[in-house]
Specification:
With 103 residues, the chain is mainly α. Helices cover 80% and strands 0% of the residues.
Length: 103
């Protein structure tokens, strides 16, 4: 039973155990369904953790997107746009350097 459950949950597969009657087939289908949902939840949580690991970078990208949108809406000259982007990038680098010095 433990062997069957472990192989079902880890989705490794099995060929030496097969359901014989309708009750066993129903149990197998339910276990496969539950293990599939469990596995999807695990993968989703891991993806979420990895995706949120660098929250500061995501926040900076959002800020730059908003800056680009604002510059486009106001039809700023290209030279001003370049200077603003350069300023924000240098400010980000300065903040990173300050954080590293604090460590």
């Amino acid at each position: 039973s433990l062997y069957f459950t472990a192989y079902t949950i880890t989705s490794v597969g099995y060929g030496d155990i097969s359901p014989v009657n309708i009750t066993e087939r129903v149990v197998c289908i339910l276990m496969l369904f539950i293990s599939g949902i469990s596995w999807a939840c695990v993968i989703g949580q891991v993806s979420s953790i990895v995706g949120n690991m660098d929250a500061q970078e995501q926040e900076f990208r959002r800020l730059m997107d908003n800056l680009n949108r604002m510059m486009h809406d106001r039809a700023l000259p290209r030279s001003v746009c370049r200077r603003l982007r350069k300023f924000f990038l240098s400010a980000k680098q300065a903040q990173r350097n300050e954080q590293q010095e604090q460590i």
